[in-house]
Amino acid sequence: MGEFTGRLMVSSASNLEKLDVAGVRMIGKFYVKDGLILRTRQLEGLRAVEAATPGILKHSSFLREVLLIDLVATLYRKPPPLSWLKELRKDLRLPITFAGGISSLSKAEAVISAGADRIAVNSILAENFSFGRELIDAFGSQSVIIQVDVRKFEGIYWPFSHSSRVKMEEPLTDWLARLDEYGDCEVIVTSISAEGTGRGFPEDLIQIVSENASRPVVLSGGHGDVENILDLNSRFPGVSFASSSMFLSNPNPLTQKFAT
Amino acid sequence: MIQVIPVTGHSNTQSLVSALEEAQLKYCVVGRAKDFHHDWPVVIPGVGRFGDGMKYLRDSGFGQLLREHRGLLSPMVGVCLGMQLLFDYGSEGVGQRGLGIFSGYVRKFPASVNRPSLNVGWRQLHWSAEQPPPIEAAYFSHSYRATEVSPDELLAIASHNGESFPAIVKKGGVTGFQFHPELSGSAGVGLLKKYLSMAL
Fold first, then answer.
1. How far from chain centre, in Å, is Cα A34?
2. For range A7-28, the mean pLDDT
3. Distance of CA A43 to CAs A163, B118, B141, Å?
4. What's the predicted TM-score (pTM) here?
5. pLDDT, tens digit, for every residue of B51-76?
6. Which helix or strand (DSSP H or E) is residue A145 part of?
7. DSSP designation for B102
8. Which residues pair with residue A114 across a beta bridge?
9. Is B180 a catalytic residue?
10. Percent of residues in chain B assigned helix, strand, coil, to nearest 5
11. Which residues in A lie closer than 8 A to residue B186 (C-beta atoms)?
12. In this structure, are residues A148 and A176 in contact, taking their beta carbons and an 8 Å threshold?
């Protein structure tokens, strides 16, 4: 079903093609719950938009990679939705990263066996930091993404776990330094306050996460403007982007003509 | 019948078999060496570490069978780690001998500030042959790449942090993809089908 034909070099046309030509890595991020795609704002589920499998397949021609985040799996201690993942994998010929409720090696194994290519973890690391190393040793650093959900509190950025409900014990800069112990695996940083607003990823947060970055960084939250993404891509080479609202907006900003 | 050999417990078998189904290729996942056929095509997917993959191939007996198969009677395809295992040697972990079907060494990309070794995402392919190219870009997810590869065996290259590295290698009936054709859209599925079905 994946309609993307592997052509990145095109001369003009849509915003999506412009991102491709500029070498922007844009990940389609979908918050899911019980087989539904959720519209979110600041990591709170606002409403279900559509059934997840047909919804994601419908967007597949605009997608290059997919990040699926089960918003409530950790909160409610629910197992990963393996049968749904397997169903999606059957029809989607694009990379899938899955996040939500992966709290053991056996759950990670089950998620990958169901069809995910990569797994992402956040909350479990606050309780058991060595679990990140266990995952990397088992699956390789290319298959593990560390999620860091971030919010500013009294002028300082702090990481949060459990879908932004629990503030972690050390500030973001210290947490990022600790993540160096995991080597070069990718980190996806979500600005909780910008998420779902379309008002742009906070510039001061980009500075913090890209400074001396020895690992690939994905910026998530607030993306809505293609020209802003192109600007960030040129000023912070090497960073990647993840967005849900760019794919769920109607009309889809990625299919619009690039503003010249 | 295409034989899928999952070289670690963590291989992305589901992605690969879904692509084989889309390509309408018959396959079976082979877990025991005694079920292996030397005259059937083979695909080796892979997620994980070089050392773990080679340990599995050694302990299971598949290693020797794959060396004997080497694409002589029917095609052999390696994907990502499955491609890297086809080389002489891999430096991941303590360092291991590979299957030695291709000459070369699998090493980690050098890393520096803002230039991580991990290469994830869609990358342009530059083909040495095959005009027009059957696919112009593909999805990569790896930190290691093959080095010291014979130029005659390079079918396509890609680049990461300014370094060109082998994206597709081919030697007789054996083809190795450093990227994931099964995750590279319909064109990637077509590529997988082409090299698993080619006449020898």
1. 19
2. 71
3. 7, 28, 28
4. 0.89
5. 888 999 999 999 999 999 999 999 99
6. strand A144-153
7. S
8. none
9. yes
10. 30, 30, 40
11. 2-5, 93
12. yes
